[in-house]
UniProtKB/TrEMBL annotation:
This is DDE Tnp4 domain-containing protein. Its cofactor is a divalent metal cation. It holds the Pfam family DDE_Tnp_4. The keyword Hydrolase applies. It comes from Hordeum vulgare subsp. vulgare (Domesticated barley). GO terms for molecular function: hydrolase activity; metal ion binding; nuclease activity. Residues 321-477 form the DDE Tnp4 domain. Residues 45-75 are annotated as: Disordered.
Amino acid sequence: MRSPSGARPSSGGGAAAEDDFAFYYSFLQDAAAASPLALDETVAAAAMPNNRRRKRGGDDSIKDGPPAGNNGRKRSIATIITSLAALEAEGHADSAGAADASRRELALLESNADNKSQAMMDYFAKMEGSFDADAESEAAARSRRSQLSASAAAAAVVAAEEAATNTAASASPPRAGHHQRRLWVKDRSQAWWDQCNSPDFPEAEFRRAFRMGRETFDMICDALGSAVAKEDTMLRAAIPVRQRVAVCIWRLATGEPLRLVSKRFGLGISTCHKLVLEVCGAIKSVLMPRFLQWPDEAAAGRFKEGFERSFGVPGVIGAMYTTHIPIIAPKISVAAYFNRRHTERNQKTSYSITLQGVVGPDRAFTDVCIGWPGSMPDDQVLEKSMLHQRAAAGMMHDACLVGGASYPLMDWVLVPYTHQNLTWTQHAFNEKVGDIRNVAVEAFARLKTRWACLQKRTEVKLQDLPVVLGACCVLHNICEMRREELEPEVQFALFDDDTMPETPVRSETAKQERDSIAHNLLHRGFAGTTFF
């Protein structure tokens, strides 16, 4: 029977045919009861597919009118149901056949893909084995060649030593500790350095090349001997201490590129670069504690007396200044090292780091702060320096430092008046403070004159620059203490842009003290007359 909704009931297993028969039989009975003519047309349409009429004999034939009786109608319904069931079975068979064909095709494709993958793996395995065999044979050949080369070099060395021994009587004796140069070392000329190292070399020429006399150079070599000396090896003789120090000092003094340093001293470029850094590090670790240090109580007293005797300003132990050292554009934090003021003045993109220094009356440095980016103003560099921490810890010996207008007025920093419409007293004070500041300016000018590497962009990496600049400051102090003079024609014109601090006055007590000093200068006759 039909379901209440008129849909065909679904079933599974062996009951499918019986359900189909019941469904179709019930449907056709209803149709026959409703219209015998419609039933005959339905029977004809189901019994004659593709518009072909099949003739049947006896009671099974289809006539134009309704069937003669109920038996004929039932036989027609059974025939139709059987045909429909056969058609449905044929459709199921076709679907099953298509599914089997798809499965067979998929299995064939998978089998072909597996075969191709296996073939590729076998090919790669064979190629890898071939490469391994070639590498092993090449390594073996290289090992044999190296053994033959070592044997030949050893034989040549033995022959050279025997020849040198046979001719030792006629040849000049070699230097102490000097071994025969091996064949694999590139032969470079050291004629220029041998000439400079000779006792007959003129003192003026030596001073022009190294910015110091021979006695000062010998003192530095003796002080650094234990720190930079190397021992000879079986392969080559070590570079002497004097030559190591000379490479560094000549590079700092001239600022020439490493390829010219290499030609001058007969050494490799990388060797010269390594020597410069090693000697600069030794100068910072060995000589800086001796020649660049903050003054103690006794030295601070001498500095106060010297500045007051020369300029009339009491309680000053040093003059402060900040200069910029040009560098190549760094790979990181480029904006921090960009120097806008130098770029605008020179019309060329400039990058720099700062060098802040405090100078005593003898134009020698007593404190340096190196390496802050060039975009920082002078007052911020001062706040980040060890000098600021030293002052906060009370190590200024009840004294002050004199700086320019780029520094703020504080209890331990004395700066000139910067407002408009100055009085005569303030003009006189600014003149004296400017004279003291010029001591630091002159010291920095002599520093850059003596060590030309500070005048232009250097090849030294940014992380190594503080060591190199510190070594330049130490060597400057040594030369100033030993009265090493500079040639007038090589004087460097120092020029740095002053920046105004955000807060020019940071202490009311310091402001009153400055007014008192300015008043005493004018009434004690220490003020000049250039402001009139």
